[in-house]
């Protein structure tokens, strides 16, 4: 049986992409933190606020759950919660080569929100892909 040609989206390192974090939009951080920390025992990880959101990180193995509370109603999280209510906002994948991954996305004709990586939480370089290109999920890419 013939091996399929390599996908233009397939990471080119042996490590591949890993889940860096899952962003969950909440109305109030205290409500989310009490469940994740106090009920299921996830440890808090200090994170800086970013993109108009207050962020609480919670350790989930080698990944994080980031609870995102809007700093203002017109912030990205504020608009998301107003339109859809609380819930999963995005998933973030860590890649070895953010610029190369974005180029493969362009080459594949995927819709990219951030054509150029920008500073995200903790000063890491990030770029978002539009949900229309990723099976309805807002995807954030960050460099390891």
Helical content stands at: 10-25%
Q: What strand line-up does the widest sheet have?
A: 2-3-4-1-5-8-7-6
Q: Tell me about the biggest sheet?
A: 8 strands, mixed
Outline the low-pLDDT stretches: 1-13
The shape, in one word, is: globular
Rounded radius of gyration (Å): 16 Å
Assembly form of the protein: single chain
Helix tally equals 3
Following the backbone from N to C, one meets helices and strands in this order, namely EHEEEHEHEEE
- Counting helices, strands and paired strands, the structural category is alpha+beta
Strand content: 25-35%
Report the strand count. 8
Give the end-to-end Cα distance, rounded to a whole number of Å.
Answer: 35 Å
On the 0-100 scale, what is the average pLDDT? Answer: 91
Structure description:
The protein has 144 residues and is an alpha+beta fold. The chain has three helices and eight strands; from the N terminus they run E-H-E-E-E-H-E-H-E-E-E. Strands 2-3-4-1-5-8-7-6 form an eight-stranded mixed beta sheet. A hairpin with a 2-residue loop joins strand 3 and strand 4. The termini are far apart.
Which key features would you list for this structure?
144 residues; disordered N terminus; alpha+beta; 21% helix; 3 helices; single chain
In short:
The chain is an alpha+beta fold and 144 residues long. The protein is built from 3 helices and 8 strands, in the order E-H-E-E-E-H-E-H-E-E-E. Strands 2-3-4-1-5-8-7-6 form an 8-stranded mixed β-sheet.
What are the SSEs and their pairings?
Layout: E1 18-26, H1 29-39, E2 44-45, E3 53-60, E4 63-70, H2 76-84, E5 87-95, H3 98-107, E6 118-119, E7 125-129, E8 139-143
């Amino acid at each position: 049986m013939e091996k399929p040609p390599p996908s233009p989206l397939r990471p080119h390192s042996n490590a591949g992409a890993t889940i860096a974090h899952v962003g969950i939009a909440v109305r109030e951080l205290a409500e989310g933190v009490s469940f994740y920390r106090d009920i299921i025992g996830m440890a808090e990880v200090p994170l800086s606020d970013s993109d108009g959101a207050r962020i609480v990180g919670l350790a989930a193995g080698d990944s994080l759950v980031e609870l995102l509370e809007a700093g203002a109603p017109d912030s990205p999280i504020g608009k998301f919660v107003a339109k859809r209510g609380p819930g999963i906002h995005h998933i973030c994948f860590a890649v070895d080569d953010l610029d190369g991954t974005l180029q493969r996305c362009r080459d594949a004709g995927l819709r990219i929100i951030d054509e150029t990586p920008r500073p995200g939480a903790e000063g890491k370089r990030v770029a978002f892909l539009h949900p229309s290109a990723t099976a309805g999920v807002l995807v954030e890419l960050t460099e390891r």
